[in-house]
What does this fold into?
Amino acid sequence: MFLTKKYLPRRTVLRGLGAAVALPLLDAMIPASTALAQTAAAAKPRVGFIYFPHGAVMNKWTPTKLGADFDLPQIIKPLEPFQKYLTVISELENAPAIAEPVHAVTPGTWLSCVHPRVSQDPYGGVTIDQMMAKAIGQDTPLPSLEVATEEEGGEGACDRNYGCSFGKTISFSTPSTPLPMEHNPRKLFQRLFGQGDTPAEREVLARENKSILDMVTGDAGKLRKTLGARDQTALDAYLDSVREIERRIQKLQANKSSQPDLPPTPAGIPDRFDEHIRLMFDIIHLSWQANLTRVTSFMMAAEVSNQPYSFIGISDAFHPLSHHQNNAQKLDRLAKLQAYNTQLFSEFVKKLSTTHDGENTMLENSLILFGSNMSDSNLHNHYPLPTSLVGGAAGKLKGNQHLKYAAKTPLANLHLTLMEKVGIDIDKVGDSKERFKEV
Amino acid sequence: MLKRRTTLCALVALLSVNAHAADDPYAAARKQWDKFDTYCTKCHNNDDFSGGFSFDGLQPEDLATHGKIYEQAILKLNAGMMPPLGQKQPTMDERKALVKALETSLDAVAAANPNPGSEMLHRLNRTEYANAIRDLLDLEINSADLLPKDVESSGFNNVASVLSVSPSFLEQYMLAAREVSVQAIGKPNAAPVSRVYKGAPNASENQHIDGLPLGTRGGMVVEHDFPADGDYDFSVSGLVGAGYVWGVMDENQLIITVDDDKVFQAKVGGKDDLRAVDLKQAEGVGMINDRFRNIRHFVKAGKHRVGVSFIMRSSAETIEPLHGFVPVDGMAVLVQGVSGGPRIDNITVAGPYNPKGVSETAARDKIFICRPAQPSEELACARRILGNLAQQAFRRPVTDDDLASPLQFYSGGREHGSFDDGIQKGLMAILASPKFLYRAHSPSGSSGVFALSDNELATRLAFFLWSSQPDNELIALAQANKLHESATLQQQVKRMLADPRANALVVNFAFQWLHVSGLEQVNPDKTIFPQFTFDLIPDFRKELELFIGEQFRTDRPVGELLTANYTYLNERLSLHYGLNVVRGGQFQRVTLKDPQRFGLLGKGAVLMTTSYANRTSPVIRGAWILDKLIGTPPPSPPPNVEAFPETQEGAVALTVRERLEKHRSNATCKTCHSIIDPLGLSLENYNSVGQWQLKDGDAGVMIDTSGTLTDGTPVKSPRDLALALTKDPERFASTFTRKLMIFALGRNLEYYDMPTVRKIVHNAAKDDYKLSALVLGIVQSDAFLRDKPVLEKDVTVATQ
It folds into this structure.
């Protein structure tokens, strides 16, 4: 038995947890029912949003040459082998991210370009990864995947006025629904491929999960009848989630043939932070290979991360080091750390380049935004942002360019452009003004 | 003396005004209304609209509709934050009169039109889930590994409105239901799983660690749940290293213990190992570390303590420094080389191999309240077992309908496996149900305010005082419909506060209130604080836990949290504080003569949480005091302010105070900093790691701690500050009550809750503001006992 649609009349309607808040703007923004049809025939890119915190030492990120065959300064140097698929975009600003708390709203506004309301309960903008998930993620088991490496960073990811929600995730499925990011590789692996140690055991447990969901639906339905109107709405978010997981199980079973050979379930979180990042990239790669999702968001380190990178000889914690005070030695160490993050990312890109995806490689079919929502970590400013695109987007990205727009061009213009690249025709994202034609 | 008299006068005034309040609730406010024109409308007018509101044209009759603004005004006036520096200031008496008048009118309006607020459908958070499992199954689970971390609101992680649910979230709770039920029943044919336990990166290996056998030093101990009787492989890694050769200088005996029984002992280091590392470097290290991998040992199912440590030797036998060496981030290798001792990076437990079934465990004892002697008894027994578990898990009497699904899962499991397998499936169904995951209040009757049912009340009480589910006594009283009766309620609150589970009020409520989680984030700079070791962090927590715990247990007046003249210390912490009074690793109660360590302000946990890694921050400490103890968090600094000037090489070093003064020379900054800084500067005699210091670390001159609070009180020591903050006992009691009420109700406080807060605090006066009086005041308030269905989502106001 599967869920009846009794309690969930409109799956594409956005709902806040707290109430049936009216979202006219957002309803209009996401043509959820049409996008799927429009994009079904076209090759669908795999979309990744790879976020690193604390910006970049910009003079070691930004190429000096414009156009094709640009130079690659230290921090983006590791991407050199893939320059053909690399676009660096300079002079972008995310003005809606400017706020009193210098870290607490930074991650959560990167992909929305909407300034959140002052409230402990989150209310910001839907992020483009989630808009895409609604449009192109519906025929994979998971509409999207949210991944991190740290549960939380240090002081400053929370704020008195804006709460904690915007500091800990880069994904919002509604203005008031931050999506938690999974940092435990073991849990992530189990969620993607199932609990159980053998394929047979996984199969049994998957069937059991279906029965649990049936039961849960029945229980929630009865509970709902005893509640007031607002609480019923809150429970609807729960029922939405139940339905979503049911759908996922169905898709997974239909999808069984494309499962790659699975490595053993990771035992837990690795000792070394870079091994942890690598492992998360590996699982993301595996999930793309298994066609489990098209849209993935990944925070390589937490906002206000205090990880030391001692494995490359940097003993300073990341966040204090990012307050470099323009001290030359600190800047050197910070740039080295940032280049190392790019190095870890480029290892993932390399894997994509050697994985087949239909007629192409997976890299050719990918559209990856790699960047940060901060510029100079000493000033905590949001201009000019380190921003790059990697992949061929199934033929829709030109690649091998360094583009420089007018000073303080909205980052949201790029988001609007990316939406178009995956086949979603909307007029506006956040404070966007126009699409980029050059990308 | 003068101050006390004024308070008294105000109190008398309040009482007399109250008498008329029934006729005209606005009378009190009306008499003071001209003060707004005198002191406020210069900025808060329709043109300037400072702070986003105006007093222009507002009349006393508007108080209720603009309650949010006026409650804010009361807080700002009380804290001396408004009118801002440089503007015309009311006298202390004027200030108090205006506050009292506003409060009187607001309270009168509220009394005529009570608003208990509304609690949203409440999901169990991670801590509550783990506690509920502990009480339900006698099973400690690692909730951090199983469940996602919860979002906080107003500093607390149990605020219903942000405890949202997403598919990934729900999925994790489903996985958790399976994992917990398997763990509780045990899994006779469990496949091997490995789990890595990381050691603290900078822990000292030189002292005895609590929980490990006496006569050992260093190492780590973990509670591991073994799913079946069987063989398990233990591995210890990162013992020795090459490069800067460390860990092998001389011979140490490493031991592995399970529940204090030694199961393995072997030497590490010494002549042969040193030679191996010297000659073969990494290869040698690999060979040595391999000796400590996959050490197999048979263990019975259930929870056992696994320890790894070294046998303590006399200091004469070692080349280690007599007093602990200092591990430094990144430089650890070098320092370890100097010390010469091996270190324990992490331990891994993998298994079971060759499982031999499941022995009896505490969890199984709790679950199997009957055992079927023959197949025909099985179903009846399963019904008893699952009925018993469901009643506790669902926190109310269960019906046949409630048991239908769990029994169905039981049957499915029994069909393909044993009776135990059936019970495991049934338990999983209970834990996966929204009836376990959610706490709800069902509106009774019409759409207005309604009283909670006794079952709902039992649940609310238990999650407030224990952060867990109600016990059988509460459920029984609720079933008899007696719990809501005033005498019963009081008696139950006293009983619950005396129960060990009430420690949740300390480690869950108080630690969140004081933001102790910040301790882990400070990471003190070892070159500046070589005396600091990371073992002090758990010591700081323990000290605070025992101190606040005693305050609750002995039911002291709330103000004594700031002034009490005792603490709890072990040897390490006592030496850290420069008090040579305790021997050994156990914590002991110490009565203090010197006020340095009195109250919360003298505790290392508080002092370090509010510091930077390399220096103190009077601003962080001041802002912390404003937020946590005074209850009016200062606004964040405007963006793009110049960074605090760090001491540069070669430049003349300035004291923190001098640098602060330089920093706030700007008039805009000064408005807030003149309030924040004196609070923090009075604690300047504590360094970043909470030690008493007389001289500024950078400048090397005597520290000047003097300052003046907004009400004109001079302060120059932590003692002065503690006394100033508790001078008017109602003020601190009010802040504390507001924080406790957020936690108790699981929602943010709104302006319309403030009359309730004032009533609770006012009523607690006759009980000397004892902690139990404030707890009882909350429990007996309408906000706690009643609920109101709400259609529109309330917008949060920053009144906390």
In short: The longest helix of chain B spans residues 92-112. The first strand of chain B starts at residue 122 and ends at 123. Chain B touches chain A through 83 residues (CB under 8 Å). Residues 1-21, 322-338, 792-800 of chain B have pLDDT under 50 and may be disordered.
